Structure prediction request, 162 residues.
Amino acid sequence: MAALRDFITGFPMIQWLDVPGLAHPFEEIGFPSHEHYQQAVRQYLRHNAHCSARGMQDPLSWAVLTMNAGRMVVKDLIAQGLIDQQSKIEEIQGRFEPLVEGMASGPPLERIEQLLALSRAGLVSFAGPEPRFEFDALAGEFTVSSPWWIARGTPPGCCANR
Prediction:
């Protein structure tokens, strides 16, 4: 894998598809406040909407289309008996199919724009990764928080919906 990355860096017009980075866009970023996180998510969604609006002019859209086409080829190979059961279970069902499904199952552009509008209006707040939902019986309300905020020094409960 490292050799392939080194090879690709020799071609600046080619970019590495960072699938883990796409799945966890803020993993390496700390935020000084809940509001900074909200702004980062809105910026991420604006970028996502821009890329979505570009359609097939967007490199990520082409990558997803290519993976979908590859999935059809793989299904053909399975039907022909050219892929053994263990590879089918471990590699295809265990890794390839979830990757392609996850990449190809995002919301349509209109929904991204609607979510952005709700966030700007203060009606939607992004809790963060791995949300924890609780019910405070004494206060009679639900709360949501993210362990990422605690790990990064943001006060717990900062994301509570009250």
Notes: The radius of gyration is 20 Å. The CA atoms of residues 6 and 12 lie 11 Å apart.
